[in-house]
Write a structure and sequence with these properties.
heterodimer; A: about 270 residues; mainly alpha; 11 helices; B: mainly alpha; MetI-like fold; MetI-like_sf (chain B); cell membrane (chain B); transport (chain B); ABC transporter permease (chain B)
Chain lengths: ~270, ~290
């Protein structure tokens, strides 16, 4: 290895380390501030180690209400997005090449629309009919683009589906509905599971779209952002820490299930 | 379409079509058309809606063109979003290249898993982390004071804070598309270039970048769109002097009480983002089908 190569390597190593520090330091600091007795969340100066902020969070009724709002919204988003996203993937795959690429462009367009615009468009449409912001509109606005993710994930799995299974079942006298329910749906189950998980995550984390259609309802992200402006204490950090732990646990679970499913399908 | 009915029968086929129609017509098309309708009408008291003055015009959009403060904020949002896109591209490219071409499969798997952790964490929390980091009496100022780089704490909130927070929030939307694109590059091409005496720069410029342009274009499109449409970062990390276009839109809706003008501004934002998407994809000769994977 030449000297120039070695220098390049060292430089890259340094860059790589800096990149990881950049990615993780803010999160570590935010988590660390949860245990500092200081009223404003920080780690400098350290004013004593405490768990009091978890108690403060536990006692915060606004937080519990917003958590409940987020759960309700996520539940309905999954309920709306999974069937529609699956139907969209099935319709898409049954189109011919040219129509398919046009339809594909139409179906991914909500992903390329800024989140605030999605929220605003939903808000103005429903005002025409006299419906104001709230959980109902949050669900509709979020679903309008979360369906895209479901559609993409289901379509990806459909590409590996062996159509002869369906034909065999029909040949053996099964009805079309039976074939769908007993063959296609079970085949899609891993993708539906993954898409459902992603939909929950996207729904709970959404802010830009939700902000415009929330009316008087306050989901978790809106609650956190409001706290930052009206009086941030490390109780919010405690909430952030819990959300991070839950998210990471969920992500790991998701990976494990996905890999296991992959092994199973490659074993067949 | 006939294929759908042949495969699933009349009942299921109709159900699938109906669901897709509800989505595309009811949840995507109708809201956007209504927004355009709002944008082109004047803001009138209820009694005058449908009356003589309720006619289509471009007044709301022209208002943006003539109001110098809003116009300046609009252009700042455009170039600042472009800057965020450029910074994330430059920062991510070396990492993506290393991951895709130099790392062993084991290394790559571990690093990608580590990288996805911040990616899973919600945007508001990522921004909150920067809010805490950049606070006037926060850790960054404390660190810089100790090292002696600054003599007095710096007020980071404002344009710098917003740029830093956005770069952080959207960096992985740039990294993964580029990584995916570079990964499909055959290593022997790099070796061939090297054996033929091409410099590192030339290899990247003539081989790696052309090969990965679909990924680069995808990353740029998403980062730009997310940055231009972001509300969290400017709201949390900004200052009164660093307003973002989305904040102006928000004010028309919830403080100014002029939804028509707000809708017009939102429409301008939408058209901007769609234009950036189409022009970027055209320049990179990428099909929309390759995006969003």
């Amino acid at each position: 290895m030449s000297a120039a190569d070695r220098i390049l390597r060292a430089l890259f190593g340094f860059y790589f380390a800096a990149f990881f520090i950049y990615l993780f330091a803010p999160l570590v600091i935010m988590a660390g501030a949860t245990f500092n007795a200081s009223r404003f969340p920080t780690i400098t100066p350290w004013q004593g180690t405490t768990l009091q902020w978890f108690n403060a969070l536990w006692a915060d009724r606004g937080m519990w209400e917003s958590l409940w709002t987020s759960i309700v919204v996520a539940f309905f988003v999954v309920l709306v997005s999974l069937p529609i996203g699956t139907a969209a993937a099935l319709v898409l795959t049954s189109l011919h090449a040219r129509a398919r690429s046009v339809m594909y462009a139409v179906m991914v367009s909500p992903l390329l629309t800024p989140g605030v615009v999605v929220g605003i468009a939903t808000l103005v449409l429903w005002r025409q009919i006299g419906v104001g912001g709230g959980i109902f509109l949050i669900v509709l606005a979020q679903s309008s683009f979360i369906i895209c993710y479901v559609m993409l994930m289901v379509a990806a799995r459909l590409q590996r589906f062996d159509r002869t299974q369906e034909e065999a079942a029909i040949g053996l006298g099964a009805s079309r509905f039976m074939v769908f329910r007993r063959i296609l749906l079970p085949f899609l189950r891993p993708a539906l599971f993954a898409a459902g998980f992603l939909a929950i995550l996207q729904s709970v984390e959404n802010y830009n779209t939700t902000l415009f259609v929330r009316g008087f309802d306050t989901p978790l992200t809106v609650y956190i952002a409001t706290k930052v402006r009206t009086g941030l204490t490390p109780a919010v950090n405690a909430l952030a820490l819990i959300m991070i732990v839950v998210t990471i646990a969920g992500a790991i679970l998701y990976e494990v299930v996905r890999r296991r499913a992959q092994q199973r399908s490659s074993a067949v | 379409m006939a294929e759908l009915f042949r495969r699933f029968g009349g009942g299921l086929g109709t159900l699938f079509l109906a669901l897709v129609a509800v989505w595309l017509a009811g949840m995507v098309l109708a809201p956007n058309l209504t927004m355009i309708d709002y944008a082109l009408r004047p803001n009138l008291p209820p009694a005058e809606i449908g009356g003589q003055r309720d006619v289509y015009s471009l007044d709301n959009i022209l208002y943006l063109a003539n109001e110098s403060v809003h116009r300046a904020i609009f252009f700042k949002t455009v170039w600042a979003s472009a800057l965020v896109t450029f910074i994330t591209l430059v920062v991510c490219y070396p990492i993506a290249f290393w991951l895709a071409q130099r790392a062993t499969p084991g290394q790559a798997a571990v690093v990608i898993l580590a990288l996805t952790i911040p990616f899973w964490i919600n945007e508001v929390l990522r921004t909150l982390a920067w809010y805490i980091l950049l606070a006037f009496r926060g850790p960054l100022n404390a660190l810089l004071l100790v090292i002696g780089i600054i003599d007095e704490p710096v007020r980071w909130y404002g344009d710098i804070g917003v740029l830093a927070g956005m770069t952080y929030a959207y960096i992985l939307f740039m990294l993964f598309p580029i990584y995916n694109a570079i990964e499909s590059l055959d290593r022997s091409q790099l070796e061939a270039a090297r054996d033929l005496g091409a410099s590192v720069w030339r290899t990247h410029w003539r081989i790696v970048i052309p090969h990965s342009k679909a990924g680069i274009a995808t990353g740029c499109v998403f980062t730009f769109m997310l940055a231009a449409g972001s509300y969290v970062a400017p709201a949390l990390l900004g200052s009164p002097g660093s307003r973002w276009f989305t904040e102006i839109i928000y004010n028309w809706f919830f403080e100014g009480g002029d939804w028509n003008r707000g809708a017009a501004y939102a429409l301008v934002l939408l058209v901007l983002c769609l234009a950036v998407v189409l022009v970027t994809l055209k320049l990179a000769r990428v099909n929309l089908t390759d995006v969003a994977k």
